[in-house]
Protein 1
Amino acid sequence: MNLIFLGPPGAGKGTLAAKAVELFKIPHISTGSIFRAARDAGTPLGLKVKAIIESGKLVDDETTIALVRERLSQEDVRAGYILDGFPRTIPQAEALAGFARIDRVVNFDVPDEAVVERLTGRQICRNCGANYHRVFKKPRQEGRCDACEGEVYTRADDSEEAIRRRLQVYRDQTAPLIGFYRERGLLVDVDARPAVEQVAANFKKAMGR
Ligand code: AP5
């Protein structure tokens, strides 16, 4: 099963992907996570994208498409994958159609106010990537991950200014993908407003599970 998770920043794509990995036993491929890991490791790719990802703008299509194309050539995606955060532009979607067969595009729908509330409170474990929230999902020990005791931090692009920019970029460049995939009969809508467990139930139902 080859899936795309589509939706605005903070829709819960990463959170749901973690659950979908367990359900379908396929890897989660997040272009945002790959870019952040490259930045943290100081690789040439990381140095190139650092300022872009921290400001909330998009990395250029050529770089992003090459990255995903290479990732999808690896052995572990044979049985399927979840693409989270890719494609994000029509040229990316057109390029993807040339080297991958997508079964379903899951569109997580959530209003802007919820996005701002979720992202300004989001915290992430630097070690294992587990997701927390200052209000909705606090780690048991402040600043430390429940799972691995790694340091819990706030992403540079989770400032209110960057979140507003990401929402605008989403509207201008990514939201047109909803129509693109609906026309191709691949789109499944999931209401991402309720609590995580309910969104997970909505997702399972939409996938016929
Ligand atoms: P990326 O990492 O993909 O960021 P994003 O799309 O903005 O998505 P987020 O990770 O912010 O949100 P999410 O939907 O995964 O929500 P989450 O589950 O974490 O991209 C980062 C940057 O990389 C981009 O801005 C760009 O620069 C670059 N990039 C990446 N892909 C690219 C591409 N294809 N082309 C060009 N550039 C690219 O949840 C958010 C918070 O809400 C968490 O705290 C969570 O606990 C909480 N939460 C989740 N669900 C719920 C719920 N139902 N109720 C309450 N709280 C919830």
Note: The longest strand covers residues 104-109.
Protein 2
Amino acid sequence: MSKISIPSLMQKKQRGEKFAVVTCYDASFARLVEKAEIEVILVGDSLGMVLQGHDSTIPVTVDDMAYHTACVARGCSAPLIIADLPFASYHSTQQCLDNATQLMRAGAQMVKLEGGDWLCDDIRLLSRAGIPVCGHLGLTPQSVNVLGGYRVQGRDDDQAQRIINDAKALEAAGAAMLVLECVPRQLAKQISQTLAIPVIGIGAGAETDAQVLVLHDLLGITEKTARFVRNFAQDSSSIEHALQRYRSAVLDGSFPAAEHGFD
Ligand code: KIV
């Protein structure tokens, strides 16, 4: 597989072809993800929960993210690597630029940050500085204490309209991709059709341009999983096989199924 670029993912969207994204935190799994031809790796701050055993992503630091990004980058060459800017690492514009720079130097090709139109100045600056940005709207786990739990977002009209406005604002500011987490499937469909940039869904129904799952969830390692997760290790002969089945199911539209989404 040749190196996956952001323009090549844009072209997939234009052609109506889906792509798969999975979280990954180390070199060994990155090698397997690459062998399964999964297009994008997200070094997610979910590592705070699945690797470090915390009950949220809030304790994760930029150094943690840089360490795991470097591990992943040593294990693969083709997938596009996105790294999360963790909690409290982009409170000021200079802090955002410095921390994003650290993640890019560690091996990321894009950084992801959680939040709406208040991030537009940061996104403009990062893009101008050669740092591609992925937005993240809907359920934003770094704000779990504001949201009051891990709940579906955008169910009422006001909230849905705010998410649509934020999505448009992030794109206009230069975001090159967007994650939508735990939103009703109709809202995710509308945003995916409205934006030119690829929209990656998790718990957002089948009509986004791509899907992401946490690696440990799709391998059935996590003790308690959300409704939008499918265990691809069940009935698979190896981890690589589970990853291949995940990618195939995303590409042929059989994952997520109706029971994985929200109305
Ligand atoms: O940190 C993470 O793994 C994420 C995904 C759940 C989208 O942000």
Note: Strands lie at 19-23, 40-43, 80-84, 110-114, 133-138, 177-181, 199-202, 210-213.
Protein 3
Amino acid sequence: MGKLLVLTGASGTLGRFLAPALAAQGYRLRLSDIVAFPDPLPEGASFHPADLADAGAVADLLAGCDAVLHFGGISVEKPWAQIVGPNLLGVTHIFEAARTPLPGHRMPRVIFASSNHTIGFYERGTVLSTDDPYRTDGYYGLSKAYGELLGRMMFDKHGVENVHLRIGSALPAPTEARHLATWLSLADLLRLVIAALEAAQTGHAIVWGVSANQGRWWQGDDAARIGYVPQDDAARFAPLSERGDALTRQYQGGSFAAQDNSRAG
Ligand code: 15L
């Protein structure tokens, strides 16, 4: 029988791509979101509505699972008050549930949809590794940096294995010049998730969620340790036009760095 996975944020764009793709690979899925799953349930999947800010609901959701793919929460820049519940409480509840498994069960591995907005305030073209200091471009990116740091602590202190996918721009195809660096094809996203699930041991790992783009800014990470080998390259879509204002074009985080930026103009 395939591994039992919890997928939060199942009704979002990436969740709706991953759910049938993982079911087709033989995984059993417990899908969750605060809104209904809009598609027919894939084979071997069930749906469990849950609010990530509700610790008890998250604990029930994770009971007995082998791994959790935590893609839930707010996925764009928003004011602090809107980020704190779904993102900060959410990822905390996921890790707290993971470190206290049911009797007779092992701690599930946590695979966290982190983001390039953890480092969005580096200038475009700056080559980064995952060892470089955080430079988040807003509260959303800050919530993702918190999730990564929480994962570090949860492995060091409690032994919860976790992999953080620092996703660039996960899209069917790149649509603007920035994506020549940041694009993650959906096929590579699936490769990345499966590598994170199937690696024999991960400890605490951070992997850039990016394709093998010739123009990528992101290099050193734990990809080799988990066996992630991207296959796609945005270069075949070049040239693509620039979008947005001067700040959007200056920083790796693009429009997230420009949003509500009092230095603008
Ligand atoms: C993200 O983290 C967002 O969830 C997504 O909507 C995109 O904006 C992406 O980053 C990106 O930076 O392109």
Note: The CA atoms of residues 31 and 154 lie 24 Å apart.
